[in-house]
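Quick one before lunch.
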Amino acid sequence: MASRARITRTGRVLEDTFFKKAKAQGYVARSAYKLLEIQQKHKLIPPGGQVLDLGCHPGAWLQVACESLGPLKKGGRVIGVDLQETKRPDKFCDERVTIVQADARELGAEFWLEHAPGGFDAVLSDMCHFTLGNSVADAYKSLELARTAWTIATGGEEAESLDPNMPWGRGVLKPGGSLVMKLLQGTGTQEFAAELRRDFTKVAWHRPKATRSESKEVFLLGLKRKQ
Ligand SMILES: C[S@@+](CC[C@H](N)C(=O)[O-])C[C@H]1O[C@@H](n2cnc3c(N)ncnc32)[C@H](O)[C@@H]1O
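Model of the S-adenosylmethionine complex:
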C-alpha cells in the first residue's frame, strides 16, 4: 500500500520532498538544502575555512559547513552554538566540528578567546524562536536574533563607537568574510538590510527552494565584509 504524506491540522505537509531527500542522503534535517543552495550560489565557506553556526540544532548546517571545508587534511573548523543540547551528526561531520550549548546573546570575551582567536570566514545564523502565530511579533523576534548575529559578526550598530583595538569589539568576522541571517519578513527587515550596507560590499536576499511555501522565512546575506 502506498504511504500517505503526514499533514498537520493547518495543512502543512511534514514529510515533503526535501524531508525524504534529507533522510535518504543522511542529513539530520531538511534545512541542509537551504545552506547547500546558499553555498552553491555564493561560496561563503572557503575550503579549510573557519565557520560559526549560530542556532545549530539538530545539526544539518553543521553537516553542510563541514562538508564545504573539504577533506580533513585541508583543515578548518566549525563552531556550532545552540540553546539546546546538540549531538554532532556522524555523517558529513568530523573532528573539525565543535558544539557549544549556550545562548548566542550571552557569548562573551572568554568564549571568543577560546573559539575565535583568528576570527571566522563565515558567520551563519539560522536561529529562530518558536513562532507565536502573530506575524508582527514573530518578525520582530527574528529581527532581534538576526541583529544578535550581526553584532557578533561585526559589532553591529555599536561598532562605530567602539575601540577597534578592543578584542572582538568590531566582531569576529574576518574582512572579506560573509554573514547569513534567517529572518521572517516583516516591519524593519528592509531597514536592517540598509544598515548592513555599512559593513558589507554586497547585501542580498535569498529564499531557498527548501523554504516552505507558506513560510515568511528569508535569508539576508552580508557578503564580503569591508576592511
Ligand atoms: C531552525 S533551528 C536551526 C536548524 C539548524 N540550522 C539545522 O540545520 O540543523 C533554530 C535553532 O535556533 C536556536 N536558537 C534560538 N535562539 C537562540 C539563541 N539565543 N542562542 C542559541 N540558539 C538559539 C533554537 O534552539 C533552534 O535549535
